Amino acid sequence: MPAASPFGGYRLGRTRGAIAIAVVAYASSRAQLPLVLGSFGASCVLLFGFPDSPFSQPRNVIGGHLLASLVGLVFLHLLGDAWWSMALAAGCTIAGMQLTRTVHPPAGSNPVIVMLSGASWPFLLTPTLCGALALVGVALIVNNLRTGRAYPTYWW
């Protein structure tokens, strides 16, 4: 059985995750640009609940989301949104993240999101890249507020 988080960890994760989504959603509203992806909620679980995990490092969060959305867009525009192209895109996303050492499990849903929404190429910039950068930016600030904490563990 996994070890339980210390009592304060639950409050910190909850508060930090809420702050991150609030910042990205508010920026999206103010800029009138799509900056929020459904997969960003799961990214917050890692970034603020498990910030030392390899899956939570900037390389993985940004690279994983970008690669996954790119794969989804390529498959959507070359093969359409059929069930089998969605499945191939998801599988290729997993392999691509493993090959590039940018595994970020929440990003695995991006090809599905791309296909279900019929996204176009600007989806790579907004919401994918800008939103992932904003999440990492918030994580850099709030995960380092407490002394003795150093986020990220590594960049590249």
In words, what does this structure look like?
- By secondary structure, the chain is mainly α.
- It has one domain (7-142).
- It has six helices and no strands.
- The protein has helices at residues 7-31, 39-49, 58-79, 83-100, 110-117, 125-142.
- The chain is globular.
- The two termini are 31 Å apart.
- The relative contact order is 0.19.
- Pfam families: TM_HPP.
- It comes from Tepidiphilus thermophilus.
- The chain crosses the membrane at residues 31-50, 62-80, 121-142.
- Keywords: Membrane, Transmembrane, Transmembrane helix.
Secondary-structure blueprint:
Layout: H1 7-31, H2 39-49, H3 58-79, H4 83-100, H5 110-117, H6 125-142
Question: What would you say about this model in short?
Answer:
The protein is mainly alpha-helical and 156 residues long. The chain has helices spanning 7-31, 39-49, 58-79, 83-100, 110-117, 125-142.
Note the total helix count. Answer: 6
Fraction of helical residues: 55-70%
Structure classification: mainly alpha
How many β-strand stretches?
Answer: 0
Radius of gyration: 16 Å
Low-pLDDT parts are: none
